[in-house]
Every structure is written in structure tokens, then in C-alpha cells.
Fold each of these.
Amino acid sequence: MSVGTLDRAASLNRWRHRALGEKALIGLGFLALAVTLPPWPGAALVSLAMLGFTFPGARVPWRLWLATVALPLGFLAAGAVLLLVQVGGDGIGLALGGTERAALLCLRAMAATFCLMFLAFTTPAAELIGGLRRLWVPAEIVELALLTYRFVFIIADEAMAMTAAQRARQGHSTRSGWLRSTAMVIANLLPRAMARARRMETGLAARGWQGELRVLSQRNPVSLGMVALVLILQAAILLAGTLL
Amino acid sequence: MHIMEGFLPASHAIGWYAVSAPFVVAGAVRLRSVLRDKPEARMTLAAAGAFAFVLSALKIPSVTGSCSHPTGTGLGAIVFGPAVMSVLGVIVLLFQAVLMAHGGLTTLGANAFAMAIVGPWVAWGVWKLAGRMGLRFAVAVFLAASLGNLATYICTTLQLALAYPDPVSGFMGAAMKFGSIFALTQVPLAVAEGLLTVVVIEALSGKTRDSDRIAALAGEAR
Amino acid sequence: MSAILSVEGLRYAYPGEVPALCGLSLEVTAGRKLAILGPNGAGKSTLLLHLNGSLRPDAGRVTLAGQAADYSRRGLNGWRSRVALVLQEPDDQIFAATVAEDVSFGPLNQGLSEAEAALRVQGALAALGIAGLADRPTHMLSGGQKKRVAIAGAVAMQPEVLLLDEPTAGLDREGAEQLVTVLRDLGRRGMTLVFSTHDIELALALADDVALFTGGTVLAQGGAGALLSDPALLARAGLRPPVLLELWLAARARGMCPPDAPMPRSVEDLVGLLARAASPAQAG
Amino acid sequence: MSAILSVEGLRYAYPGEVPALCGLSLEVTAGRKLAILGPNGAGKSTLLLHLNGSLRPDAGRVTLAGQAADYSRRGLNGWRSRVALVLQEPDDQIFAATVAEDVSFGPLNQGLSEAEAALRVQGALAALGIAGLADRPTHMLSGGQKKRVAIAGAVAMQPEVLLLDEPTAGLDREGAEQLVTVLRDLGRRGMTLVFSTHDIELALALADDVALFTGGTVLAQGGAGALLSDPALLARAGLRPPVLLELWLAARARGMCPPDAPMPRSVEDLVGLLARAASPAQAG
């Protein structure tokens, strides 16, 4: 999986042209519910809702989704195991109530991760970052983030090509060789990234750049029906989560 | 090492946002003034941010045989300075969350504190201190990068321990638990990162003739 | 025929390097397509960067429509509105997340309103034949598409002169031919084109005029036909004539083509010439 | 004529993308020069990455000298010692500060002693005609020199097969011609060459065999002469015959060339053919 894989999926799914606000309401709204509500049944309901939005809704490719979620879930497993044990004066033992705490943590973290995954798989990162402009984030920082985004793919491609070239010359066949080769990639990548930055300066200056990166952004219309559906669902989960 | 989405309870998530905010805001204010004077520094900074991101996606072997990713914290702090790294670090963490599902949005505050604030400042402090003590260039780089990496790991461990204290031995016990699990991978990794950074800086200096040119690489971003 | 851009005695060296341009003079005629033809490293890109004020010469001067170049911020803005530059590497010029956003950058910098800029974007995408790509994320474009997006970004500024650095570099034959068609079309609408290339076939296919470049100076400037069929002159720039013209010259030297016939521009032209020359002989 | 590399029913898709290779079969004959010819985006680079084990197919198999590919670490090391890969962009594969250091990277990784590696470096630089550049800092090389250094880095590993991705991309005509000479020379010493290109003229100039590539499959594989002079076949891959062959075909169709004459490989060949056909008519 390369750096651009998720972003590509985000640009190709069925909900690509839904308004940013709607997707943010879904992803961030349910994320807030997931971490604030008591995990049972709140987080479990959030997980269910998110799977619904992700698969039947946005038709995210499930194979890729599974491959991506594996890593955070691995971290979760390692972390949760630690809640099962306790350390005291008399050594290590099974923690009292550890199973329950670990289970609740897993429920919450999974629900929250599904929310993040929904955002990552339905909304290109540039759109998300661009949305920060509408919040309190200063324009310069948003521009910096967007330029970073643009450079990420270019530099990642270069790094991948360099690594492939080294593999072809067996640069990764021993551990010390691997370390040395990776260092060489990094050492070559930094000046190249800087040279690219300078060329981009020239390229944008030629287009009349005055110091501010203004572009026309397309805004997708908000569907009130979807907003209503999401709000009702969130209210229901909030209610169920606090009462049950 | 990122704390995953949803791993911290809401109160901790908000707390770490509050702790990180002043550092990031201060970095952002500084950055804005740099950008006002030199709009073209945007390109250099963006390239640096992208570089840091790509670095974190590269695999390096660790001594135990597992693979991991360099944090680039030390290298970034040495080349670009810690204040700028705090903002770049947050941008990088944000992209890691939305492009690779590493880390998360609710845990962004906590991860930023460990990786974009503690790590770079420790690395930078060690780098300056070592310079004042007259240590050899390579030794200074090694210490800065490996201790910066280690500081990030210790900070994350403490954050986890604070959120999930041991039922018997409390915070200290939890810190030991989380610490010992991650020490297996993270201590060798800190060493690997230190070595890596030394080789990188030496290769860079080889390309640019003298170590002063490291600063020149950063250009307007410094 | 008036010179919209002209350059006199231009000298330039990148800091710490040997001179890239060594006292170079050149004229760009309004409404025509000029190829800057020469081997790699001859200084072609450096010249283009001077033609829109991206670089300032160490000596010599650049004149835009009779006025000496003005390197003040204001002056440069006006200049770059009239003379747009497309770099060789599209990734050095495309920065926004989607195609339409990126193309809108130049027009907005010119101070146009959002509505006007949107029209310019539409027009430029249509002119480049990529209206369907407006919403496409820029990092998901093929090489040829990126190239056209970069050109659209310049065309949207409605410049009088379009400077292109190696426009077909990296494109396959089909991509290059499509681009040539698009560029010819822009020329037909009155835009002045200046492009650098090491590809003599491209110069033959697209240029009205050619400036032969080598070692930081212009060896010769003139009509494409005369220059590209002069093997001795081309050889001095380290070039050979296009295969088509080489064949034509060889055939003419052996008396297999009429010596006064016009230069062929396509395979069909040349076969026609050869056939015409062969039939009277067969009849005789 | 034995197949040193062969590929059967290869399928591959980059994660989350449409398939790049769709059930592709191909044979590389030892000691010959094979061009993988097709438009950009046809999957040529992806195929090359499979031929040295850089990518692992989703389905189908790669066979090296009759043995099924072994993707273990050990297996890959052996494979890459026998099959070397040169990427399109030299900057992606030149890492070290000087030319000699960079070229020694592969031999040292193969476990050779420093003395042996130094000999290999000398040999490779000599083979590429750049012995004089050994001590040159790598960031002070021209495009053509970089390309040769990158190839020297592969040749120094003394592989049996050399894979080259778009070897002449970005080079001007002189640079490309020099490179073709060097590659022919490597071929003459017995090295098997496989190169990808969208440049049909390059395929004509260098290849013994051609595999015509389009949309992730091989449309046809065969001798260069037969394939490159078949306009109908080429058109199906979005290509046109080289100008030289187009002329030859057009001339032959009009009876201006003997129908049984061998395919011309250079301008001189073709002029000779035309002259031979014309003279009997003039005599008659």
C-alpha cells in the first residue's frame, strides 16, 4: 500500500461529491459520540452506524478497508492485553475487572477508528484540510498543509523509486546494508525536496503568485435529507447511550 | 509510535490538546511572521513537511529483527529547529491520520505533544548542549536523534499510563507495563534512528562540503 | 511582423557556475511559433526563464513590445500576464488538489473575480481538450494529462506569448501528437508560441521559425524550412536533420527528387515527390 | 535460443487500482535484445519490476532459466545478481557522492571484497565509456552522463540480463545515439538486454526482438523487422511505424522499391533501395 492508496480510494468512492459538511458531520459527529458515550452500548451502536455509512453508503472497497484497519487494531490488541494484567508488590497477576475494562476500551477505540476510516476513505485529505479554513485555522497554515499534501505524493514516489533501485542492487540484503541504504535515500531526498521547492517557487511566480495561494474551490451542495438522517441517528444513539 | 484513534478517554484527549496548543500556536505565530516576510518560504517548509511525512513511511530494520519507521524528529529538529517542527509535526500527524489511519484525530493532541513537541525539543536541546560540550559532530547527532526518539517513546508511555493506571500499583506500575512492552522495540529503534541520522547528516555534509551547509539546506525555513 | 519579445546581448551565469548564456540575441515575432532548438545543456531553459523575468540577466537586455523590461514587482506582474511560462516538469507548477482549482490560480492572481476566473478555467480546459478532468485530483493524472493541465494553467491567464520548455518531453508519440494539435490550435487563435526542444522532429512539425542554439548563443535564426534542411548548419549545433529531410536531401542529391520542389513536411509529401520524379524517367 | 526469463499469465494490480498487467506472457531469449514497446501507461515499467522480483505477481509466474521464481530473501539476492534493473530516472538510483563510489554499491552488496569491487567499477565505467568520470561528484553530471553512471551501477554487478526502463528518455539525439552504441556493445559481449520504450525509432535502432505492449498485455512478440513494418498491428497498440519504415512501405506500395528487398535500417539503406529500383527504369 503506497501513500496515495487511501487518498485514491477517497477520490473514487460513491460519496466523493457529497458536501464536505455532511461527511464531517458523520465522521466527526459519530467520533465525538464514540469517545464521550459509555462504550456499551454507545460505541457499539456507533460502530454499527459507521459500517453502514462506509459500506452500503459510500461503497468503500472492503478489502482495502480491512488491510488498512489491521494496523490500528494490532496496536489496540497490544494495548488491551496490558489492561488484563496488574503489577503489584507480589508480581504480575490477572487484573480484577481487567477483562471488562479491556473490552470497553476495544469497543470505544474500534468505533472511533471506524469514524476516522470513514473520513479517510470518503474525503480526499485536501478537502478535509481545506475545510479547516472555515474553522479557526489561519489561511497560511492551511496553505502550508495543502502544499505539503501536494509534495507528499511527489516525494513519496521518489523515495519509492529510490528504494526499488537499491533493492535491485541488493542494497537491502543485509541489515546493516538496509540501514545504510535507507540513510542514503533520506540524504538524497532532502536536497531533492528542497530543489523541488525552489522550482515550484519559479513555477508559481510565473503564474503571477503574489504570496497568497488563492484558488476557486468547488463546493458540493448540502443534502438536507442526509443531514436530517444523520442528526436523527446521532440523537437516537446519544439517547440510547446515556439511558441504557 | 502513535496512539490510535479512540484509545484515550475524552478527558485525556481534550487535556493533551490543551497542553499542546500553546506550543503549536506559538510555532504558528512564528511561522506566520516568517511567511509574511518571505512568502516563498512556504515552498521550503511544505517540502520539509512532506519530507518528514515520507520519512515516517520508510521502513528501517531494528536490531531485534522487526521493522519500524524512523520518526525523523531529531533530523527535523537539527535541520529546521524545534519551533517550526511543532507546526510541521502537527501537519504530518494529521496527514498520517487521514492518509494512512496511523494515529487519530481525538489523539492528535497527545501524539503532537510526544512527537512534535517533546521529541524535537529534546533532540534540539541535546544537540545544542553537546555542541557546547565540544562533543564530536557525529556523537552529537547520534545523541540528539536517539534521545529525541527515546523521549517521544517515554512521553507516549507516560500518556498511556496516565490514561490507564494499574489497579494495584497505579500510574508507576502502568508506566512499567507499557514501558516494558514498547521498550522491546523502541530502545533498539532509538539506537537505529540515531545511527541512521548520523549517516544521513554525514552523507548530506559530504554532498554540501561542510556542516554549516546543513543550515543552508533549510534555507528560508530556518 | 513585429517583435513582441526581443533579447540583446544576454549574458547570464548561475551563481558559482560557468556562464549559461553568452551574449545572446533573439527576436520573437508576434503571432508566430518559434522553436528554440538545441542539445541538452545549451541554455534553452535559462533563456525561457529570462523571457518572462524569472531570471534577470547579468548583462544585455530584454524588450517586451518595444519597452525595456521592468523588474519591479508591478512590472513583473504585468509582464507575466502577457508572457506565460510552462516549465518542463508539470509537477513544478501544479500545486492545487484538483485540476480546476489549479487552473484558477493564475486568473485569480490577475485580480479577476471568481465568476470571471471560473469562465477562464472553463475556456482553458476546453482549449486543451481536458474539460472532463476538472474535478480530478492532480496527483492522479497521467504524464500527458499533467502536461496539459500545466499548459491550461498558463492559457487561462490569456497571455499574448506562451513559453513552453520541452513541451513533449516524456510523452509518447500519441501524446506528443495530441499536444502538437492543441498547440497549433492555440497558434491559430493568434497566440505567440516559443518552445524549447532538442527534438528536431517536433520543431519540424510545429515551428514557423527556428532559433538554433548551442553553447549559450544563437547560431542562427530563421524560417523552419531553410534551417532544418541545412545539414551543415545543424551539425554545428550537434544535430542531424529530421529523418524525413535527411531522406529528401539524400534523394535530391542523387537526382531522385526535383531540385526546385518545396520541402516535404510529411511522409506523403515526400513519397509524392519521389513518385513525380520517377515517372518522367520511366516515360522517357 | 533458450529463454532466460519467461513470464506466464502475469496479473498484477497496484493496491486499490485497476490492473496494470492482465494475464501477460512473454519470453526473453538469452543473448538477444528485446524491446518492450508500447504507449505510456501500458504497464511496461510494471513488467520490468516483475522481471527482477521487485514486484510479486497477483497471479501467473515468472521463470528464471527454467526455475520458478524464488521470492525468499536468498532467492531474490541470487535473482538480482543475474538480472539487473536500471530505472528511468537516474536521480532515483545515484546515491553516493562520487561516480566510482556509486558504481561500487552493487558489487559491495554482492559481498565482493573492496579490491574486487574496484575492478568491477573500473570495468563497468570502461564499458560505458565514462572511465574519465570516476572521481566526478555525482551532482555535477549532465543528464546523459547520469544515465550512463546508472547503467554502470547495474553492469558492475555482472548480470546476465540487463533490464532498462526507457533508456533514452530525456536524452537529446546525440546522447541517445551514444547510449545506443554502448548498449549494442554490451549486447555484443553476450549480455541479454530488455528495455522498455515508447520510442519506436529506438526499438528499430537497437532491438532484435520486439514485444508489442498495450493495456497490460502483449499484443504480439516477434522479430523487430516483421513487427515494426506491420502498420496494422502497430496501430492496434496506438503506434505508427518509424518514419523510415513508413516511407519504405509507401514507396514499396507504389512500386518504387523492390518488393523482396530487406527492411532498411538507416537512411542510407533506404536511399540505396530507392536508387536501385529507379535505375533499371531509367536504363530501360
Amino acid sequence: MRFKAEVRVTLRRDVLDPQGSAVEGALRAMGYDGVKRVRMGKWIELWLEAPSPADAQSQAEEMARRLLANPVLETYQVTLKEAGDDR
Amino acid sequence: MRFKAEVRVTLRRDVLDPQGSAVEGALRAMGYDGVKRVRMGKWIELWLEAPSPADAQSQAEEMARRLLANPVLETYQVTLKEAGDDR
Amino acid sequence: MSTSLPLWAVLGLRQEEYLKICEDLGSEPSETVLRMYAVMWSEHCAYKHSKPVLRRLPTKGPQVLQGPGENAGVVDLGDGLALVFKIESHNHPSAIEPFQGAATAVGGILRDVIAMGARPVALLDSLRFGWPDDARQRYLLSGVVAGIGHYGNSMGIPTVGGEVYFDPAYSGNCLVNSMCVGLARREEIQRAIAQGPGNLILVVGARTGRDGIGGAAFASQELSEASEADRPAVQVGDPFMGKLLMEAIHELYKVGGVVGVQDCGAGGLTSACVEMANRGGVGMEIDVLQVPRREEGMLPWEVMLSESQERMVVCLERGREAEAIRIFRKWGLEAAVIGVVTDDGVFRVKEGARVVAEVPVRSLADGAPEYMPDAREPDYLRLLRAFDFACLPEPEDYGDVLRKLLASPNIASRQWVYSQYDHHVRLGTVVGPGGDAALLRLPGTKKGVAVKIDGNGRYCYLNPRRGAAIAVAEAARNVVCVGAKPQAITNNLNFGSPEKPEVYWQFVEAVEGMAEACRALGTPVTGGNVSFYNEFEGRPIYPTPTIGMVGVSPDVERHVQPGFKRPGDVIVLLGQ
Amino acid sequence: MAKFGILVFPGTNCEIDVLRVLRYLLHQDAELVWHTEQDLERYDAVILPGGFSYGDYLRAGAIARWAPVIEAVYDIAEKGRLVLGICNGFQILTEAGLLPGALQRNRHLRYVCGWTHVRVERIDTPFTSAYREGQVLRIPISHGEGNFYADPDTLAEIEKWGQVVLRYANPDGQLTETANPNGSLHHIAGIMNKAGNVMGLMPHPERACEAILGSEDGCGIFASMIHYLTRGRVFHVD
Ligand SMILES: Nc1ncnc2c1ncn2[C@@H]1O[C@H](COP(=O)(O)OP(=O)(O)O)[C@@H](O)[C@H]1O
């Protein structure tokens, strides 16, 4: 079976996010005064073949833990979807 | 009212994603043979003050269009949440 | 775009060109053939408006091993060493997507030098933007600088010099010229040629996608707001793959069997294959089904015209293919035999067994008509010449004037730019950015190579002939300042539309001025690039020839650096 | 003579520079080692040079850390052989967990190349014995992700164990704000593991080994390693 896993990698709360702060500053400079805080993360889409949803989920979790996120800086969240026409 | 907008920025389908290909190759080399394709994108969390959900949504959409995504290469999707304890 | 226009017109060909194509073919072209012509006969690939004028440049000298006509020029350094160098522009792509536009400029010029058999040893860049108090211009500047750094840094090639100027003339059409300098032993120099019927044609490096289709045509039009809509999918550079391709191709050179190599630049496979066949006076047969692809359902012409980056075309002796493919596989790259050299002078494109195009190589490569449009001195010059400098009041406070000058973005330090470029990698940079020319040491000898890129659009606007000559002279002075003797130049001619008599006049004058200065200084032109149609909403940029000069220092230990060194040293002003 | 292995990953680009310094300036037995190698037993010391392994895609060093050769690096590090990571090599060592912390994107978000000064924090290590205590070295940096980060507990531990070997400083050795080129916590430019045989640093010592290139201050790192390896000096932190 074919699945799509969406992995969201975000910075840990206590880690400084210079890029997020830069975007925040830029948005305010553009006039969006309501913006209070911006955090930047990564969004990774994985298409994979696996025997079952449970297997796909656990494989994707493992990939996220081992490679996609650096535990010193980041946390992650994996959402599994069926790979539809969404390639 | 305070909201959280989650902006997902992904590369246009026909745009080359060298980073995604490198990650794909790395995952296969690590033994995840089932991985068929990887695409890398950005995940941006915005906390903002706005008079109404509709206003927050439209502000976030506008920020995504004007700054967060590069229309030449990327597309985006905005999801609005109430800003809960989620930070 | 109206759909009632014939395809040739939609593709940017003129009627006389279309008729010449029919005449060369003896029949009406198919869509595939027409699309290939449209790219090969675009200004960008065919130099229709510039060829006759460029012939006026001095290109010979005892030091010149390779003049214009190949991927890059070559000068002799003695001790069996050769210096390979070339400049290229990516103005329009950078105006649309500054980071990727500039990154792919660097990738392309690196591959031009690599295709010559050389190891790139240095990069330089010449940039023009509108005034930096505008957010859009700052966005372009920071994107371009980051893009150049992204590609060069990752490849491990130091960016050792360049120049940046700001002027409203470039607000709608920035300039991004990139220069690469490489080093080879004389006998290692390769040519971009296909020869020997039966020999094989390979495409190596990345897979082919739909990106950048029509890029050459895009570069041959003025920019406007509408450019947004009809631009091709932007090409994304992959310096990581570029680096692997560089290593792999050098490994291939070592094992031998390489007849010729060319980078897949503007015009993609079509341009690379046809130009190689044309140089060898041979024909070629390509099967698009053999080209490794990134996307499904590509039409033959899409495969033939894609400008996907990080690809090169290799002509290889038959029988060497297994070894070549093994090398590229080892580096994780694609390598596929896509065709064969023939002896009939025909460029034949097949999709499996089906022939989709058959065109005489010479017509496609060299058959575009040459134009010598009207040239007319622009009116603004008369007004400018009538200006009486005496009417300017004497400044009251020269200190204030000095402060104003120093605060100008055009005089301020460029450290913000060059600190984003790795300028130390390879351990060759004896004098880096921040001074006059850069100076690189030549391993195994006492010698050094000086490199510099210079141009001044404002001077050229005021007097294109003098302005171009001044740019050559300035580059030469910079090279001399680090203790080297100027040897040769490459150049990038950035102008507006050649179909405007005023622009064409500027172009002709600038080339004349450059030729004069090169003759006077004994620095022949070994190549270059022409970028026309640098306009926005009908307004041309300043005429901006960019000069890339190389020089040789006999003893790199005895170099000079700018800056006063010790109290008590004597200060001398040389020249009038 | 000591035997050095210089690891090469796809995208590494400073391997030749390090090789040149070790072989031609310091006359050592040094060779390049491809990332697929599984045995590093034959080397006294292994260097992970700078560059952009795997294009620095995802995170600098993240992909290289999974290369087959890294298993062998764990092995020899365990055995007390010397391991030095320069720039991208430092990033790989932190990703691999051989050194604590992580190297984040530079605080100002730009790639930065230029001369920096670093203060030698300790000289009782196999990598710094050639220097004087507190000596200030002039060595170039060139990186986009050199901003050292560790959570507060880890950082405290790093300091407690004296694992900081180099800190960005001004030419007088003071830790001023402007002397820190990338926002690194505690001005950290180079650290070692607790055992003292694995070190990583962001500056490029191989680029500062010849006067004609602007400085010879980096040479001491390699000279110290050679001294340690050839004189068989025993070494302990704590
Ligand atoms: N300004 C110029 N001065 C001298 N030679 C030039 C100039 N512009 C282009 N040429 C030469 O014309 C030839 C074709 O240019 P090239 O840049 O290789 O085309 P392309 O960019 O389409 O590959 C090259 O040999 C180049 O050196």
C-alpha cells in the first residue's frame, strides 16, 4: 500500500529562532501590527510503500526521529494519509 | 482576539527539489526502501491579534502571499486556529 | 498572446526567419523543428545582432591558446599551465527569482570552465541594481548575493572579487554577470566538439524536467509586468549535484576517451548537441527516449529544449561508455547514451524508432540571419554635452562633500557582499576581495594569477566608446596594482534592445572602445557573452559592458596590497 | 610520522586543503578516505574536513552522519584515537552525538566568511598543546550554520568539564559582542568531548598555516596533534 506521511518539524520552545524573528520583524514593517510571534519550522512530505498503515506510521516516525529532526533543537509530529491523487 | 495561523509552504509541483531528493537518497541509504519520494517545505506558525476569525484568516493569507511564500517557486495553505495554550 | 498568430510568431521568430527556415529545410517545419529553431535562432543563442560587430574585437596574441568560439577562452601561463576563463549573464532570471537566478548563473559558468577540462579556481561577479533605499532592490540584492554564495560556496570554489553598483537605470532589470577562472595543464584542455561518426553522445548529471523551457527566448525579450505570466518554470540550482558532476567529469577526463564536452545551458540538449556537431562538421542522431527524465509525459521538444541544470553533453569514443557510466553511477549521477555521431550533417531527433525532426546541423547552428540594424546617436547625448559644468557652484564645505561621497552606496564598503562568499577555500587566495584585483597563487610555481571584473554603465551612458575603454583600462590598472601583467579579457555586453537605433549605436560604440583599449594594452578578447533586451517597460538600462581581465604575476611573493602601511612612507601619485 | 585519514563525503570540499597542509607543510602520512569505508583502524587520527556534505541539505551534517564511515569513527573515538572535525566536520560530529550541542543557523541568517580571532581556553589537550594559555589566534571562518547551541544543562556541563577549547574573542582576547560572528552561546568556537580525544571547531585552521595566506596561527592545531601522536603523550581531562 502506498501512503503519504506529513512530517512537521518545529524548533523546541526554548531554542532561539532568528529566522522567525526576522520574519516577524518584516511582517510588522509591512504593517501587520497584529503579529505577535512567528516560529519557522519544516514541512516534509514523504510518499512511501508499506504493508499497513501502522507500519507506515512507525517507519515515518523512525525516519523523523533518526534523520528529519535534530532532537537537540527540534521536535516533530507525523501525520499519515493515504496517498491519493496527491501524487 | 488572539489566533494562531499555521502556514504550510510547499514547492510547486514542477519545481526541482534538490533538498527533497537528497533526503530521499539518505533515507533509502538508511534502509527505508519503501520511500518513493520526498518533498521539503516550510511550516510557519504565526500568532496574531485580530478582530475576527475572518480577518485573521485573510491577514494570514495575505502575509503568506506577500512574504512567506515565493510565488515563483512555491504555493501555500493557511489554517487558522484559536491561539490556545499551544505555544 | 493571441492564438491566431502562427506558431513561429508566437515563438518569437520573424517572418523572414521563418521563410529562411523553410528554404533551408526545403519544406515547412514540424512543431518540434520549429521550436528548436526558435531557440537556436534566438538572440541569446545566435548572436544575430552582435556577431558582425564582435568581429571587430582583437582576439589574437601569442598568449591566446583559445579565442572566442568554445565554452571559454584560454591563455598560456607558461610552465605547461593554461588559464581558462569566461563570463556569463543571468539578468532576466535573476530579476524574476534572484536567489535561483544568480545561483544558476554561477552553476552555468562553472560548467563552461569544467567543460574545457579545467579545474575552476575562482569566481567573480558583477552586479547592478536600482537604488537600495527601495525594498524590492534590497530583496534582489540580498537574494542574488545569497544565491551566488549558495552555489560557489557549496562547490568549494572561492569567489574572490566582483563589483556592485546601484543606479535607478537598473531598477526594473538588474544585472548579474558571473565569471569563472579555471586552471588546467595545456594538454588537458578539452573542446566542445563532436567528431568521429559512430562515436557516442551521452548526457550526464541530472535528470531532465520541464524547467526553464524557453529560457533562451525569455532572455531575448524585454522584461515587463507581463513577464510574470509567460515565464518558464524557474530553474533551481543544485550545487551539491554540480559538485558531484565536477568530480565525476574530471574522473572521466582522466580515464580518457572523451572527444568533446559541452554544458547544457540555454537551449538545453538542442543547443549543446547541435553546436558540438557543428564544430565537428558532423551530423548527430538523438533518441529522446534515452534521456533520463524527472517528469512523466514529456514531449520530444520538451526534452530537447529543457534547461534543467547540472547536465552536460559528452561525446565519447565508442566502447568507452560502460566505464563512463560506471564513474557517474559511483558519484550517484545519471549517465545515458542518447545518441551517436553521424556523417550526414543532419541533426536527427527520434523518439524510439520514430523520427521527429531532421534538420541540417549547419542551418540550425549557424544559419540564423545576421542583422546590422540602424544605429543612431541618442538625443540625450546632445543635451548632456551642452551642459556647462561652470554653472555648478563651488561647494562651501569640501568636508561635507567628502562625507556625502563616502556615504554613497556606490562607494561604501562591499564587505557585506563578499563576506557571504567563501574566498579562502582551495588555499590559493593571496589577495582576496576588498582591494584591487584578486591574486591567486599557482601551485607548483612561483607565479600568481590576477583577476578582476570591472564596468561603469554611467560612463558608458555618457560616452559608450570612452566608457568601455575606461572599463578595460580600469581592469588593467587593478591587475597591475597587485603586481601582475594583464594578459587578456572576457566580457559581458549588457544592453537594451538592439532593435532600437540608439541602443545599437551604444553597442557598436562600446565594442569599438573596448577593441581600441584591448589593442592598446595588448589584452586580446578570448570570449564573452552578449545580453540584449535589458529593458523594463521600454526603458533600456545604461549600456553596461563588463570586463573580466586576467593577468600573470611572475612572483606571487612580491605582491602589493592596498592600504598605507607605515607612518613615514612616501605617498606618490602616478599618472596625470 | 603520524598517519592521518581525511574523510571525504559527497560534497566535502576542504579535503585537499587539509591534505596539502598535512602532507606538504607538515610532512605527515595523510590520505583521503571515502565515506563508504568501514574500517579506520590504520589511522592514528581522523579528520572530518569542511565543505557541504550532501549539500548541507536538511541540516548541515545531518545526512553525512549516517554514512557508513561514521560507525568506524565511533570505534576509533572509543579507542582514544584523535578525531578532529572542522566546520562541516564539527557539524557532523554533533549530529552524530560524538560532541554535545548543535550548530544552528548564524544569528544574522547570513553565510559569513572572514577572519576571526579565537582564544585558546586550554592547552592541556592533544589539539592545543602547541599554544600558550589564552593565546589569541587569527583564523578564518566560512559557514552559514555555526551558531553553537546547547540547552542550559548541557551547556553548564560543557563548561564544568572544561570542554570549551576555543572561544571567539577580539584581538585582545576579550569576549565582546562584536567578536562573536554567528551568535554562538558562550562564544564557543571549538569544543571537545569529555575524554578529550574528539574535537570540533568552526574556524578553518588549515586556511591559516602559511604567512602568504595571511596567518600561520592555525598550524598549531595540527602540530599539537602530531606532537601528541608521535611523543605518545598521555592525556586526561579532569
Ligand atoms: N562580448 C563578446 N566578446 C567576444 N566574444 C563573445 C562575446 N559574446 C559572446 N562571444 C563569444 O561568442 C560565442 C558564443 O557565446 P556563448 O556565450 O558561448 O553562447 P551561449 O551562452 O549561448 O553558450 C562564445 O565563444 C563567446 O565567447
